[in-house]
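Handout, section 3.2

Students often ask what a structure token actually looks like in practice. Rather than define it abstractly, here is a full record for PEP5/VPS11 N-terminal domain-containing protein. The first block is the sequence as you would receive it.
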Amino acid sequence: MSGNRGLLVIGDASGLIHMANRQLETRAFRAHDHFVSHVIMMKKANLLVSIGDGKDPRDPELIKASKAIADASRTQAQQDEVPQPSPSLYMSPLGSTALVKIWRTDQQDRDGKPKLLQQIKIFAKFPEEAVTAFSVSDDLAQIAVGLLNGAIILFRSDAKRRSDKPPLLLQPATQYPVTSLHFATKLNVPTLYAATKRGLTCYHCDDSSKSGGMPRSVVLDERGVALHCGAVSEDGDMAVGQSDAVYFYTPEDRSVCFGFDGDKKYLGFFKQYLLVAHVDPRGRHQVNLYDLQNKFIAFNWTLTNTAKGGGGGGGRFGDDAAEEIRHVVSEFGAVFVQSSLGYVYRLLEVDTTSKLDILFRKHLYSIAISLAFSSNYDLTSIMDIFRAYGDHLYQKGDFDGSLRQYARTI
């Protein structure tokens, strides 16, 4: 699941990719023969990169549930196009077929599908393994593929010469699966953050590595990182969700941390917010949006099977199933949460005035002032907040505090 360039993109368990526009009008096309494991919609160009087929790293029960959701969501025409299930849930009958495909979403072929620009055989030179993580650099010059056995393969291209270089085994196989890969740029140096269930490493993929040499690597942490629990900020820093906190890393060392308890299930960024999905003490999945600049929880939501289907059931695929978070992506100024019951929830941000009204009702004037400044509110309105804060403190009997707030309006 990915979102960029005015498109929300979802790959399903039968090889189809679904694309939705801002009005949530969808169209689908066959991208891979058997299943789609990863999709990335690029930020700076109308390009979609997908990985599909080969070995499937998911649990057989999850594969079965995903296929049920995909079947229920397809039209009859799309249903007729779906091939018969493979004899093996983990490998297509044709052998090693795992492919990276690059599509042009603003151009179409004769069949009306996005134009296929390139496809890469992932395991042409390496032993076949399931793909667990995937990242693409903004200039499309480097593609990193992480595997279930802990290996990382780096595919590189030379845009000036219009040629591809031999793939590089960036990290050899271990017993710890790769859980997160993210390209970033910090101080004009391209880097790749690579997380496994054993630790976090940063590879400096500068010009020396592009010319064929092995990138310089820095081990940032020896704590394992869970799947979907790593994300890169706009500043090029890596955020990692652990059970006790969210830790930030630069390409060279650990940076700050924020103490958010709970078993993390997903980590991401939405505008100025840190998005954290975790499990609460009662075992329910929650989504929290933290405003790190103003230091408050901007949003909290618990999945409780509220989107019930007809007949009073707990969801489309079983009354007793506990609803869990599968994927989270932001696009169209909103956050989309895909759940294990086949639902996609859209979370919309309210405007600054509505946020301030909520803070005023809770008498959180300090946070309201900080929010107004960070939102570039006009000075007259900010002075009104100081004055209201002073009135509140005066009514509480804090005359010195109220005087300080009144003084800031002069």
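Discussion prompt for tutorial groups: Helices lie at 60-73, 76-81, 207-210, 352-361, 365-374, 379-395, 399-407. How would you have guessed this from the sequence alone?
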